[in-house]
Amino acid sequence: MVGASILAAALAACGGTSGTSNDGDGGTPRRGGTLIVGEDSQPLSGFDPIMAQAFNAKRMVAQFYEGLLSLGEDGQTIEPGLATEWNQTGDLTYEFTLRDGVKFHDGSDLTAEDVVFSLERIVDPEQHSPYSSLYNFKAITAPAANKVVIELSEPQASLLHLLAQPWSAGIVSKKWVESTDADEQKTKENGTGPFKLKEFREGSLISTVRFDDYWDEGKPYLDGVDFRLMADESTRISAFTSGSIDMMQARVPKNAEAVKAKGLNVGPAYNLSYWVGLNMTDGALANPKVRQAISVGIDREQLIEIGSQGAGELAYTVPPADPLGSPATKDTPNYQYDPEQAKQLLAESGEKDVRLKLILQSENQNALPTAQLLAEQLGKIGIEVDVVPTPFSTLVSNLLSGKWDADMIVLNAALNADASQYLALWFAKDSTATKVDDPKLWQMMSDAVTTTGGDEDRKARYQEIGDYIAENVYQIVPYAAPSAYDMWTKKLHGFTADASGTRILLKNAWMG
Fold first, then answer.
1. How far apart, in Å, are the Cα atoms of 263 and each of 260, 487, 494?
2. Positive or negative CA dihedral for 103, 42, 256, 480?
3. What is the pLDDT of residues 139-171, one digit of tens each?
4. Residues 6+ apart with CB under 8 A from 204
5. Looking at residue 291, which CATH number applies to its domain?
6. Using a CB cutoff of 8 Å and minimum separation of 24, what contacts does 86-94 make?
7. Which domain holds residue 358?
8. Is residue 213 included in any domain, yes or no?
9. What is the distance of C-alpha 397 from the center of its chain?
10. Per-residue model confidence (pLDDT) at position 21
11. What distance in Å separates the CA atoms of residue 25 and residue 300, rounded to the nearest whole number?
12. Is residue 367 within 8 Å of 394, Cβ to Cβ?
C-alpha cells in the first residue's frame, strides 16, 4: 500500500489490544535470537529512504535509516534522533546539533555534510521523491562540523514531524550514494539504523543483522530480523499460530480476532481511510455530475458493515486516526445515500453507458469485498464498474507515473508523520499522480501547512479541505477502518506496535 503515509500525534485507537507486549515475565532485556517476520510483499521502491512511500518499503527503511529527530512511543512526542538538540532560532530558521559518534553501516562517520546532502536530495527534482512537495526549504547549511541549519522559504508546521521519520527524511552517506548505482540502492543500504542488511533474495527473503556500532548503546537486543515473503494471509496466519514465524501483519479483522482468541499478541487498530482515487483528466469522471452521482449512489453504511466487517466509520482523505484528522458525517457534502438523486445526476450529466475500470491491490484480500460491493451499488444507478485486482507493484507504478490505466485506483492509507502527506499523494500541484487542476485546493493545502495557529487551527483547516474535496468529489472515501493488525509471539518482549505499523521500535525488543 502506498501511503503516503505516519503521523506525529497520539493516534486514536479503534479496537485491538495494548500496543506493547506483556513483559511481566520478560525480565531484563537480553541479547540474542533472530526474529522471523512473515511479510505480504517486498519493497517495490527498494531501500532508498526518500523513495519509500509504499507501506512495505517504509517497514524496511525503518530498520536501516534514521532521521535527525525521532518520534516517541506515543507517536507524538518529538525526541532526539541523529540530532541531540534542535532550536528554532528565527521565524524561518532551525538549528540542529548532531550526535557524536554516529556511524553508517559501512563504518564511516556521520557528518554535517551528509545531512545537508540528504535533505537537499529529497527536494532535488531529478530524484522525483514523493516527499519533495512537503518541504519549504530555502537553504540548508553546515556552519560547523556538528551543526546543520535549515532555513525555510515560508512557515512549515509539519517540519519537525517530517524530520522524525526515516522515509521522508532518512539521512544517507553522501559518499556512498554518489558512488552507488541507483539500481543498487534498491537492493543495498548504508544507513545508521539498528539493523543492517545481510542478504536480499528477490521475492523470498530480506535478512538483517544487528549493527554492532549503533549509537544507542546496548541496542538492538536481537541478533537480527529475517523478513520472509509470504503473500497469502492465510498462509501467514497458519505459520504464525504454529510458531513457524514470530511476527506478521493481518489485514482481515476476523483473522485478528481469531489470533487474539488464541492468546497471542495483537496490536491496536487505527481507522485509516479507504481511498478511491478518481482520474478526472478525461472521460466520464471529468464530468462533476458523474462524480456526484457516484458519491451519493454508494451506501457507505452498507460498505462499512460488509466491506470493513463493521469496523469502519465515515471519513475524509485525512483519516480519523490522524491527530489532525476528523471523522466525516452524513452531513458531509455528497455523503448522504440517495440512489434516486444519483440517477438524476447521471441523467443530467449527459453521459451515456458509463463504464469504469477500478484497480486495486491484488495482494490485499480485505480491499476486494468493498470494491465489489461498491461496483454492485453503482450498477443499480446505471454505472458499470469493472473491478480489476492488480499487483501492488503495477498499481503503485501506475499511480506515481500518472499513467493510471484505470478510471479509479483503490488504496488503503497508512499513518503519516503529517496530515499534509495524505493530500500530497493525490493532489500535490505539479505531481504526475495528480488528476485535478484546482488552484483553490492547492492554496488551501498550502495554508494548512504554513499556518502558525497550532494544531487545532490545522485540524480545522483539514476538515475544511475534506469538505471541499467531498463537495467537488475529487475522491471517494467510502470509510476509514483498520488496514493492518500487528501480531507477535509471546516470546517477544519490549515491542511496541507503533501507529505507523512500520515496526520502527523493534530495536527495543528482545526474545525471551
1. 5, 11, 17
2. positive
3. 999 999 999 999 999 999 999 999 999 998 999
4. 228, 229
5. 3.10.105.10
6. 86/160, 89/149, 91/155, 92/138, 92/151, 92/152, 92/153, 92/154, 92/155, 93/149, 93/150, 93/151, 93/152, 94/149, 94/150, 94/152, 94/159, 94/160
7. 271-482
8. no
9. 16
10. 42
11. 45
12. no
Residue 185: other Cβ atoms inside 10 A = 19
199 exposure class (CB count in 10 Å sphere: 0-12, 13-18, 19+): exposed
Q: What residues have CB less than 8 Å from 127, skipping those under 6 apart?
A: 50, 51, 121
Rg (CA), the chain: 22
Q: Residue 217 burial by CB count (10 A; 0-12/13-18/19+): exposed, middle or buried?
A: exposed
pLDDT at 408 over 50: yes
Within 13 Å, how many C-alpha atoms sit on residue 106's CB side? 14
The DSSP bridge partners found for residue 229 are 39
Domain assignment of residue 478, yes or no:
yes
Q: How many residues does the chain have?
A: 512
Planar angle of CA 181, 182, 183, nearest 5 degrees: 90
Q: In whole angstroms, how far apart are CA 113 and each of 110, 118, 187?
A: 8, 9, 24
pTM reported for the whole predicted model: 0.83
In a domain, 403, yes or no: yes
284-297 CB burial, b ≥16 within 10 A, e <16 = bbebebbbbbbbbb
Contacts of 485 (CB under 8 A, 6+ apart): 16, 249, 250, 251, 253, 255, 256, 266, 267, 269
One-letter amino acid for residue 101 of the chain: G
Q: What is the DSSP string of 491-505?
A: TEES-B--TTSS-TT
Q: What is the number of other CB atoms lying within 10 angstroms of the CB of residue 432?
A: 12
- Angle formed at CA 333 by CA 331 and CA 335, multiple of 5 degrees: 70
Set of cell numbers at residue 507: 530495536
Query: How far is the C-alpha of 495 from the C-alpha of 26, rounded, in Å?
Result: 11
Name the percent of the chain lying above pLDDT 70: 95
Name which of 404, 439, 169, 462 is nearest 279 in CA terms.
404
Residue 159 lies in a domain: no
The answer to whether 20 touches 495, Cβ cutoff 8 Å, is: yes
Grid cell digits, residue 33: 535470537
Whole-number pLDDT of residue 43: 87
Calculate the CA dihedral of residues 388, 391, 396, 397 and round it to 10 degrees: -100
Specify the number of domains making up the chain.
1
Residue owning grid cell 532518512? 170
- Mean pLDDT computed over 102-118: 98
- Sequence-separated (6 or more) residues with CB below 8 Å from residue 120: 137, 140
Q: Are strands 147-152 and 137-144 parallel, antiparallel or unpaired?
A: antiparallel
Separation between Cα atoms, residue 308 and residue 367, nearest integer Å: 9
**CB-based contact 140:120 (threshold 8 Å):** yes
